[in-house]
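Every protein is a chain of amino acids, and every chain bends into a shape of its own. The fold becomes a row of whole numbers, each drawn from a learned catalogue of backbone shapes. The protein below has been through that process, and both of its lines are reproduced in full.
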Amino acid sequence: MPLLDFLDSQAVLPALRVNGKKQALQELAAHAARLTGLDEGTIFEALLQRERLGSTGIGEGIAIPHGKLPGLTKIFGLVARLEKPIDFEALDGQQVDILFLLLAPEGAGADHLKALARVARVLREPGLVDRVRATREKDALYAIMTELPQAA
């Protein structure tokens, strides 16, 4: 089973073009709405509310916008590589070029936090982010994000 089993092969955006944080969140919400059947505005508002609490930019060019939504039945992930880095008010001040959207059912509780930890762990794998930044192909990006690390 892949480490990020909640990432579907259709939920991969290898070359997203946006001009800023708000537009990035809008694009993520639009793509997520198409794939989940949920309302785009509801997703966008949940992401905005979470960002108001503090940036989900975790540093090193990575952000993990996330939220809980009524009507969602399982954890949903979407990965995007940006054409150009944007200001995301990240903790380290660096611009962001890799976004991983994570949506969870309203009552997910600990499962939401476990999924966030898994995403963060995968994105900290040595060399993984460099490989993500180097690809422009949807299938390749999906493979990078879902393959299990090789046992030593």
Observations:
- The chain has five helices and six strands.
- The chain has a mean pLDDT of 92.
- The chain has one domain: 8-145.
- The beta strands are 7-16, 57-59, 62-63, 66-69, 76-86, 96-105.
